[in-house]
Write a structure and sequence with these properties.
Keywords: Arsenical resistance. The structure is a single chain. About 35% of the residues lie in helices and about 15% in strands. It is built from 4 helices and 4 strands. A 4-stranded parallel sheet has the order 2-1-3-4, covered by helices on one side. The chain is globular and about 40 Å long.
Length: about 140
């Protein structure tokens, strides 16, 4: 069993922290359990998580209705081993020694649940691959 110091820490970042990064964090928390520490944040957080995203995740058996978008902080990046951006551009601070990945994914903002489902499914696939890499 990993001690807290040995658990890899992953930060998911998108602009509003209302869609992609929330789905990714929820999948990693759900699939990784206590093997991974998970955070998500946005460079310009929305007021609430996208309702179509909440609905799409509920269909996958994961309740994110209580989540709220959070502001990206320098501390969150410093405290993470892996930083995965999802369309936040240059607003993510970069520190040496961190692993940075950029996942090009469509933005679910303003989309209905039908448009969110394929984004959700792609995020889940990427999270499963990420878990294989970081949580050995």
């Amino acid at each position: 069993m990993n001690t807290p110091a040995e658990r890899p820490s992953v930060l998911f970042v998108c602009v509003h922290n209302a869609g992609r990064s929330q789905m990714a964090a929820a999948f990693l928390t759900h699939l990784g359990g206590d093997r991974v520490q998970v955070r998500s944040a946005g460079s310009a957080p929305a007021d609430a998580v996208n309702p179509a995203v909440v609905e799409a995740m509920a269909e996958a058996g994961i309740d994110i209705s209580a989540e709220v978008p959070k502001m990206l902080t320098v501390e969150a990046v410093q405290d993470s081993d892996v930083v995965i951006t999802m369309g936040c551009g240059d607003s993510c601070p970069v520190f040496p020694g961190k692993q940075y990945l950029d996942w090009e994914l469509p933005d679910p903002a303003g989309q209905g649940v039908d448009a969110v489902r394929p984004i959700r499914d792609e995020i889940e696939k990427r999270i499963r691959g990420l878990l294989d890499e970081i949580a050995r």
